[in-house]
Amino acid sequence: VERRVRMIKLLDDRVASVRAAWWQGWADHCGVVPLRRLGAQVEQGWSPRCDVVEAEPTEWGVLKTSSVSGNVFVPMKNKRLPDDVPVDRRWQVRDGDLLVVRGSGSLRAVGAAAVAQPGDRLLTISDLLYRVRGLSGSPHFFANALQAPQVRQIIERTIRTDAGQALKLRSSDVLDLPVPAVGTDRRTEA
């Protein structure tokens, strides 16, 4: 068990190192700007009363924060929306949506990002998830950029706690996160 725990730690460190080098290479090549300079807009979902079971593929579900973890989107991590609760389709998740965890009890979970791939599943974002829209370019690029150690340090410094002790990230803090300025002029801004 100790060897496996150590191996997982070494793999996590290696992934972080590769991500840091990847992010820095793009930053050196293109410069860095806050997400807001790339036209990003942040939307926060809703959290209606839900059942505690996962929605069937033909039923509506509201995503849990655990649906966005480790740069991976897991559509099965949802709660079924009861039939008597009307669906707010503004928050429907589509393939290619960039999702960021807004709030959680876990420091490591707050700020996690992933690209949604719900396929035909009927899913919406909860109020503890943000959807980042308006970015031109690959949402996978930006999900990876937001998980780089350079950005992760900033996320962890800006996290707040509310009265219920949940850790949260404000939308303005997400828009201020630095990302490589791919596709923009070469001015650097942090």
Q: Name the poorly predicted regions.
A: 185-190
Radius of gyration, rounded? Answer: 17 Å
Give the overall silhouette: globular
Q: Major β-sheet, in short?
A: 4 strands, antiparallel
Our measurement of the CA-to-CA distance between the termini, rounded to an integer number of angstroms, reads: 42 Å
Query: What percentage of residues falls in helices of 4 or more residues?
Result: 25-40%
User: How many β-strands, per DSSP?
Assistant: 14
Strand content: 15-25%
Structural class: alpha+beta
Number of helices: 4
| Helix/strand order | HEEEEEEEEEEEHHEEHE
Spatial sequence of strands, sheet with the most strands: 2-11-7-9
Average pLDDT, all residues? 91
Provide an overview of this structure.
The chain has 190 residues and is of the alpha+beta class. The protein has four helices and 14 strands. It has a four-stranded antiparallel sheet. Strands 6-3-10 form a three-stranded mixed sheet, with no helix packed on it. Strands 8-13-12 form a three-stranded antiparallel sheet, with no helix packed on it. Strand 4 and strand 5 form a beta hairpin. The protein is globular, with a radius of gyration of 17 Å. The N and C termini lie far apart (42 Å). The C terminus is likely disordered.
Features:
single chain, 190 residues, alpha+beta, four-stranded antiparallel beta sheet, three-stranded mixed beta sheet, 4 helices, 14 strands, 22% strand, disordered C terminus
Summarize the structure.
27% of the residues lie in helices and 22% in strands. It has helices spanning 2-30, 139-146, 149-158, 171-175, and strands at 32-34, 41-44, 60-63, 68-69, 72-73, 78-80, 98-101, 103-104, 113-115, 122-124, 129-133, 160-161, 167-168, 178-180.
